[in-house]
Amino acid sequence: MVDVGGKDVTRRLARAGGRIVMQPETLAAIRGGTARKGDVLGVARIAAIQASKRTADLIPLAHPLPLTRVHVAFDCDDVASAVSIEVTAETVARTGVEMEALTAVTAGLLTIYDMCKAADRGMRIEGVRLLEKSGGKSGRFVADA
Fold this sequence. Notes:
Blueprint: E1 10-21, H1 24-32, H2 40-53, H3 55-58, E2 67-77, E3 82-93, H4 98-116, E4 124-134, E5 141-142
Antiparallel strand pairs: 1-3, 1-4, 2-3, 4-5
Helix pairs in contact: 2-4
């Protein structure tokens, strides 16, 4: 792992996002709460939060961080037949929370896939990326639209 002992402790934030594209019927089942495995977005929210907290266990060289907040938001897009997820992770630490936000997004999307795969194996996860980060010596980053 990289030595972060000499870095300043600062408030750090990272926001990441992605989406899963599916058949319109699958999106309707998610929205209506009629998916066979239950409340898809509720379970995906918990999976995202849990994954953010376990990032250092999954990514070999990631530092374990004391997260102060993890916010998960979903948006259903009927036109694209997709569910988007956006995760904001925050900490007060010596290193950033980009990996926690990205891991949370990925776990949330994979959970949606897992819960709906019996009905729609053609779902496609796409666009997982860092949207914003702030804090620390490198300052603020905002992704291009």
